[in-house]
């Protein structure tokens, strides 16, 4: 297989500074939206799609600007706050292939406004499969097309209204050459013999069901590992839930209401009154009295929860135990996992793509913990398919994992 294409080092990328047809006005009313829908329905070929969120500023992951570009239609910038129902636009684009960079980030917020693709080309995922070491939109555009995109507005507050013109220009340029990038990556994947792999991956993204709500999301609090006692753990939960409620009501990012570090510090200290809470790092004089009372109320709830109702020290776990425990629980399973990981890593290197894209590490763990009775390639492949692996992945990894299982041996402890 060929290596990924790259612009020679001595060739400086050409800055992409202005949309080729100029900066379009933002679509903010039904009349302009209807005209945009008609133009994009009449366009041809794939449609480049991007969305800007206000992560770190607002609650949730909703879109605050949606950018589109299609041959024959040009570029459109749509305000989904002013035009919250874009299902008619989604239907107008239903037969087009959508070109998205990092689809897993943008598709959920697009679905919220009624836009969902039926056919997809993810340029970030294509870059991973093609073996590019850097797959951000900027590096990919430079390496593949020889064009540089300015990224200085990537982390701004996109809920700002009106949006400044430099931000809008940045947003329009994100879809300016996305279809050209798609075409070049398709050629590269085809040359490497990986185009079929990528198409299977794209189809699986489109077909994936909406993810179920995360169980106990408060357990993702940073530095939670410092909390050992269950009473302190329930304090983290109550503070997290209070913060989430306040953030949702105020429509601000939870981290702007109270930091994870402050939550953990308060849970460890379990202060008994407001002055004691103010002495905890993260609850200083800048926190107003009403908020301090809310945090104290959360801590009081944590104190009053009966012992039998305290959350377990570790999250309820589905599937195999953590790999660090395998050597003690099942040494042969640990040997299978070690061999399978090494085999997958070597195979991924041979095909110049990340091991986690060749096969999800969780699937390797699951099939290693509970292998088929006959650990041949067909049985391992069937087990992987049952766990959700794509056929191209099964075809590649099932034989090497099966061989690793056959060769797995429990290490013999040295005799005294």
Structure overview:
The structure is a single chain. The protein is an alpha/beta fold and 416 residues long. The chain folds into three domains: 14-207, Ribonuclease H-like superfamily/Ribonuclease H (Nucleotidyltransferase, domain 5), CATH 3.30.420.10; 217-309, HRDC domain (DNA polymerase, domain 1), CATH 1.10.150; 323-407, Orthogonal Bundle (DNA polymerase, domain 1), CATH 1.10.150.80. It has 19 helices and eight strands. The protein has helices at residues 30-42, 87-92, 103-112, 123-130, 137-145, 165-174, 178-192, 195-207, 230-250, 254-257, 260-269, 274-278, 289-304, 326-329, 331-350, 355-358, 361-369, 377-386, 391-407, and strands spanning 14-16, 26-27, 44-53, 63-71, 74-78, 98-100, 120-122, 147-149. Strands 2-5-4-3-6-7 form a six-stranded mixed beta sheet, with helices on both faces. Strands 1-8 form a two-stranded parallel ribbon. The model is unreliable at 4-8 (pLDDT under 50).
Task: Please summarize what this structure is.
It contains 19 helices and 8 strands. By secondary structure, the chain is α/β, with parallel strands linked by helices. It folds into 3 domains: 14-207, Nucleotidyltransferase, domain 5 (2-Layer Sandwich); 217-309, DNA polymerase, domain 1; 323-407, Orthogonal Bundle (DNA polymerase, domain 1).
Topology (SSEs and partners):
Layout: E1 14-16, E2 26-27, H1 30-42, E3 44-53, E4 63-71, E5 74-78, H2 87-92, E6 98-100, H3 103-112, E7 120-122, H4 123-130, H5 137-145, E8 147-149, H6 165-174, H7 178-192, H8 195-207, H9 230-250, H10 254-257, H11 260-269, H12 274-278, H13 289-304, H14 326-329, H15 331-350, H16 355-358, H17 361-369, H18 377-386, H19 391-407
Parallel strand pairs: 1-8, 2-5, 3-6, 6-7
Antiparallel strand pairs: 3-4, 4-5
């Amino acid at each position: 297989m060929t290596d990924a294409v790259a612009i020679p080092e001595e060739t400086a990328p050409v800055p992409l500074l202005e949309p080729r047809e100029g900066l379009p006005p933002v679509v903010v009313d039904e009349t302009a939206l209807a005209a945009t829908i008609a133009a994009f329905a009449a366009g041809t070929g794939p449609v480049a799609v991007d969305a800007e969120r206000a992560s770190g500023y607002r609650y949730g992951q909703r879109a605050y600007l949606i950018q589109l570009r299609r041959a024959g239609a040009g570029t459109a910038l749509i305000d989904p706050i002013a035009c919250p129902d874009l299902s008619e636009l989604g239907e107008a684009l239903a037969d087009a292939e959508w070109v998205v960079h990092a689809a897993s980030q943008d598709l959920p917020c697009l679905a919220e406004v009624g836009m969902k693709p039926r056919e997809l080309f993810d340029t970030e995922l294509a870059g991973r499969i093609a073996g590019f070491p850097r797959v951000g939109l900027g590096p990919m555009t430079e390496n593949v097309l020889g064009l540089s995109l300015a990224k200085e507005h990537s982390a701004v507050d996109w809920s700002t209204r009106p949006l400044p013109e430099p931000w809008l220009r940045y947003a329009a340029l994100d879809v300016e050459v996305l279809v050209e990038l798609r075409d070049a990556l398709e050629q590269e994947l085809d040359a490497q013999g990986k185009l079929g792999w990528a198409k299977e991956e794209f189809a699986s993204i489109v077909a994936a069901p909406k993810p179920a709500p995360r169980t106990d999301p408060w357990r993702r609090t940073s530095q939670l590992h410092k909390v050992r006692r269950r009473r302190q753990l329930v304090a983290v939960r109550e503070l997290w839930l209070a913060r989430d409620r306040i953030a949702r009501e105020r429509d601000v990012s939870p981290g702007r209401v109270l930091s994870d570090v402050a939550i953990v510090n308060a849970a460890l200290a379990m202060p008994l009154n407001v002055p004691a809470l103010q002495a905890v790092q993260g609850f200083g004089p800048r926190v107003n009295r009403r908020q301090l009372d809310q945090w104290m109320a959360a801590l009081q709830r944590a104190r009053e929860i009966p012992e039998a109702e305290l959350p377990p020290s570790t999250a309820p776990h589905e599937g195999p135990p953590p790999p660090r425990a395998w050597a003690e629980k099942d040494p042969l399973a640990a040997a299978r996992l070690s061999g399978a990981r090494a085999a997958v890593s070597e195979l991924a290197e041979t095909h110049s793509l990340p091991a986690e894209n060749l096969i999800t590490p969780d699937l390797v763990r699951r099939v290693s913990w509970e292998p088929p009775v006959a650990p041949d390639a067909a049985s391992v492949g069937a087990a992987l398919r049952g766990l959700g692996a794509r056929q191209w992945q099964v075809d590649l990894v099932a034989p090497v994992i099966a061989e690793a299982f056959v060769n797995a041996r429990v290490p013999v402890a040295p005799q005294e």
